[in-house]
């Protein structure tokens, strides 16, 4: 179990910090869903800095629950892929070919409960980058 400081504001002109437990994974027990947060996914392929051999790479990760996959060209926040996938899916093949010789960033987050539940999404995984081959 890890503890986090939570900022509580009152009508009075001061701020109070309270240490509250936020549980993950096996520590969850029977607490309400708003107190739960999923573990961040582990990105597996392509590894950070990798040059792919195709313009439609398959991204792979290890995660519990529903996933949200985000892929964007480096230097922009406009995604070329921004998809939600159901529990048990550990990979996503990009359907639209990417631009040759360009660097892309990707990340994943997970939700062990209902995919529409805002409070239970994990933090994003670390952001990895990959480059598409320039000779295709």
Q: What is the gyration radius calculated from CA atoms? A: 18 Å
List the quaternary state of the chains.
single chain
- Spatially, the strands of the biggest sheet line up as 4-10-9-6-7
Average pLDDT value? 77
At a glance:
This protein is 0% helix and 41% strand. It is an all-beta fold and 136 residues long.
Describe the structure.
By secondary structure, the protein is mostly beta strands. The protein contains no helices and 10 strands. A 5-stranded mixed beta sheet has the order 4-10-9-6-7, with no helix packed on it. A hairpin with a 5-residue loop joins strand 1 and strand 2. The protein starts with a strand and ends in a 5-residue tail after the last strand. Mean pLDDT is 77; it is low at 10-34.
Index terms:
about 140 residues, mainly beta, 5-stranded mixed β-sheet, 10 strands, about 0% helix, about 40% strand
Layout of secondary structure:
Blueprint: E1 2-9, E2 15-22, E3 42-45, E4 50-51, E5 58-62, E6 66-73, E7 81-85, E8 91-93, E9 103-111, E10 128-131
Parallel strand pairs: 4-10
Antiparallel strand pairs: 1-2, 3-5, 5-8, 6-7, 6-9, 9-10
């Amino acid at each position: 179990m890890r503890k986090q400081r939570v900022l509580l504001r009152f009508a009075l002109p001061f701020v109070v910090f309270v240490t509250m437990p936020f549980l993950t994974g096996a520590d969850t027990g029977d607490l309400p869903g708003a107190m739960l947060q999923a573990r961040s996914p582990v990105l597996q392929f392509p590894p950070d800095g990798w040059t792919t051999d195709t313009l439609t790479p398959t991204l792979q990760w290890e995660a519990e629950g529903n996933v949200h996959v985000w892929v964007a060209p480096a230097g922009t926040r406009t995604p070329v892929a921004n998809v939600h996938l159901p529990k048990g899916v550990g990979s996503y093949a990009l359907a639209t070919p990417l631009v040759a010789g360009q660097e892309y960033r990707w990340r994943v987050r997970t939700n062990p409960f209902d995919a529409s539940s805002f409070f239970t999404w994990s933090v994003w995984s670390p952001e990895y980058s990959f480059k598409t081959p320039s000779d295709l």
